[in-house]
Design brief:
The protein is mainly α. It has six helices and no strands. α3 packs antiparallel against α4 (96-125).
Length: 206
């Protein structure tokens, strides 16, 4: 009898823990989905942000924008390393047309890495040095991320020709497409953060 009671107690505790975990995940997902509603790539946005949210720690809009930008930066660096590797291989084959196509792409992805790096640092400073500089930081982040988005698009368009093999071309385009989508989502999340920040300030000053 005692053993049966103990077994039922353990089972009850297990069920309660499971239900608590489901509730936590459900609340976190609902919150993240609401934040991602304005993005063009909703599923990617949720996938990017959800691991950083739980019931007891829901990241602020600023933090979510920071996470998205940091993820975009990591993917951009990864893409740069891959394109650089392919370019070096093509250079060894003495194929100037293929090499030049990727050299142009490398310049653009280098610019993208620099622009997103600056954006991550700029976003970290927002709110720390007073409201008078908030708009200045905002303009910088929007300009840099938009430029990185343009660079990714330009590189994708630049490798549409026959200079690069179809398999390699597809892999490069897939990586740049991921960067492009992350950059787009980052801009949307950043805009959501700045809009909510202004609304909050307006209420406080009312």
């Amino acid at each position: 009898m005692a053993q049966m009671t103990l077994s039922l107690l353990v089972l009850s505790l297990t069920i309660l823990c499971f239900l608590g975990t489901v509730e936590s995940r459900s609340r976190a997902r609902t919150y993240i989905e609401a934040q991602c509603r304005t993005t063009l790539y909703f599923d990617l946005c949720v996938k990017t942000l959800l691991p950083y949210a739980n019931k007891n720690d829901l990241p602020s809009p600023q933090k979510l924008a920071q996470i998205s930008l940091t993820t975009c930066l990591a993917k951009t660096r990864f893409t740069k390393a891959y394109v650089d590797m392919v370019a070096k291989q093509l250079n060894k084959t003495k194929n100037p047309r293929e090499y030049q196509a990727l050299e142009d792409c490398l310049r653009q992805i280098n610019n993208g890495v620099n622009q997103i790096t600056l954006s991550v640092k700029e976003l970290q400073e927002m709110g720390k040095d007073g409201e008078e500089k908030f708009s200045w930081h905002e303009s910088n982040v929007q300009s840099w991320v938009s430029a990185a988005l343009t660079d990714a698009t330009t590189c994708m368009d630049g490798i549409l020709g026959d200079e690069i093999g179809s398999k390699t071309k597809s892999m490069i385009k897939a990586r740049f497409l991921n960067v492009k989508q992350l950059a787009s989502n980052s801009i949307a999340l950043f805009s959501r953060f700045t809009a909510r920040h202004r609304a909050s300030r307006a209420i406080k000053n009312f």
